[in-house]
């Protein structure tokens, strides 16, 4: 993948990924190809080959389950004859879909009762809110129910209103699907327009309230009921958990978006029942359209082609995605058949070195006060290692018991976490440590824009991983040069890290015009993909430096990313704000370039001259002054420039500037006069400038 024609000190991403981007072909049904996706595709092909083998009496129960699900998904003939009958029966049992059912009765419709009946029938659908089981951040030995916003895949485009290109394509898709159910075009157009308006309103409150999400906001169900009156929360929650668990009003749940729930309540109370019913049944169709007859699947493929620029995926690929929802069984089968379990020991060794390196770095961080530093080091020492897969996954009886009776998996997954205690629960840092952290974060915000948690982790994670590698080298000696490569083991460390970020996008996915809302100001205000203008400016400066240096070297504009696609095209800088809306991270280019530019270890290993693109004079780091005050490096440069300016400016000018500033702050004339009499005189208030000293 390495492009040896590129200077690694000039553009390390292009050096590592250039040939990957030039030579890789994006599959027709995808918007991108990445090194990780290639590995994932290989795993899917392995699983496919296993599931397509005839069933055998010696197959484990999880394998038999997966084969049954896979074969059912692949049976499109049965799908043609039975799926439409099934979905229409669901509509009827739930009271009917108004737009295609002339007998629908508004008086009998209650969205809550429809949701309850669907859940009892086995449908887990997040029409208005989502619920999930998480580890309790205050007590890691317990679980807690988290209530949050629903998953709306296209909420970003919907939140921009009916005039957005993707929203118009979505509306056309809605009407065309309704026509396949036999709805008259006029009524489908009118009623789906009302549904669209509802979805736009819902998406707007998701988009506006998402940034204010609280990672941990526990309250009793009774307190939640008092805050959001019209939704029967206890009944809703127990309907979700039944029959395994039943809660009471005094039980605590985690409400990450209370503001969203209040806005949702207003929206539901002010929306016509017919619109709510049409929305709910449309939501059902969206979720199961891949399992409807071919004409529905074709219609969905046409829609995805418009909004994503992709062709249809092979049927087997879609069915493997369905299999992946049975993640315990799929993981068990894959590990049993394709994983070399001996590799876990090598990874465990690496993780141990990295863990030790983190402790070393934390001990030397002057911006952490001793109390917070002690907590951090204690926590680091208590972190357990879970490598690849849990050992229980190799225990047949444990996995088979998990699927006894075909029970549903409730997947408890990690969210954005705050600093935590050694056992995993949240514990605040001291105010001094938080203040220092925010000050140091501002430098990275300037590079990434509104930085997300993964991007901030990149900068520290690469450094810690390298120090872990160096601990291993110190203990075991330098590694040998890789055969056929002229790069040292230390250089290969950086190359291997950057290789994970190699990616190639379709032009439509990368540059499609998006006018998303600007994020709120501050450090870590949200977790979306849109970044502040100051982040754009930093990226432009980076690209300018690469372009200027390249033009000096070759007199060509290497930033013609229309064909190369490893950053921002020189002809489309205004499009930088329209980053890929399905990816919460900064584009891979910046997630490699920016951290490496900030690391002295990288610059030393590749012998990059000071002032080169990959070794700028100003890095995001810290300078510890004699009084232990931490100042960001870019701020220090600013202060030096201010000092030069002050030395070269006349005192009279400085006096005018300072006292005019006070007037601008609405300082009263009387206070100004007293200040003048006690300290120095304001030159412009004197009859003669000569009297001023």
TrEMBL record:
Q: List the Gene Ontology MF annotations in alphabetical order.
A: metal ion binding; metalloendopeptidase activity
Can you list the GO cellular component terms from the UniProt entry? plasma membrane
- Chief location bin: membrane
The residues covered by the Peptidase M13 N-terminal domain are 8-390
Please name the GO terms of the biological process aspect recorded for this protein, alphabetically: protein processing
Topology with respect to the bilayer: Single-pass type II membrane protein
Record's protein name: Uncharacterized protein
Protein species of origin: Zophobas morio
